Amino acid sequence: MTERILVINPNSSEAVTRGIDEALEPLRMSGGPVLECVTLREGPPGIETQAHVDSVIAPLARVIAERERDCAAFIIACYSDPGLHTARETTAKPVLGISECGVLTALTLGQRFGVIAILKKSIPRHLRYLGAMGVTGRLAAELPVGLGVAELVDEKRTFSRLREVGTTLRDAHGADVVVMGCAGMARYRAPLERALGIPVVEPTQAAATMAIGRVRLGWGVAASAADAARAAA
Hints:
Strand order of the largest sheet: 2-1-3-4
Strand content: 15-25%
CATH architecture of the largest domain: 3-Layer(aba) Sandwich
CATH topology of the largest domain: Rossmann fold
Number of domains: 2
């Protein structure tokens, strides 16, 4: 049976889900796990506040529980990693958050990483998470583009702001790798990397790369089998 990785966009924007799906195309391969992207219809149009983050935890856990039998791994495709730990209590199969994976990937590509946020008000929430991860010593800076999730579909305006902020992170703050701080930015990774001349990490791609490795190596399978055996006992 073909293994399946479920990539969940926790906001209700189908445009964001399409962008994520397109960004994952290079990671689809013959004989590899299927990468299925879905939209959490109960989610807000964009996850831009802590209240938005909190509101999607229960619906995310329900989706994971419903799809647990036919999926080998799950990805939460929002840079706030909403419900990550709750999701990991819902299933023994691998659950990856794109923020955690994006930052960990950046640490392998450069010494100091910069983050491009969507809004200024998102930054304190992200900094709390980076502090919990223990990686703030490697953070060059996090700066916003000043556009909400829904506004990211304006390609010309969005790319102009991404390039401007990325250049500032590189030149003024010394970032030698940049992390895109929103799944809605996915379609702009390759052109932004060409424009900046330094690695640009799209966090859903980073999470999918890790998930594929876990599925192919069987990580999480033994734990799932053990849990199933205990439940049946």
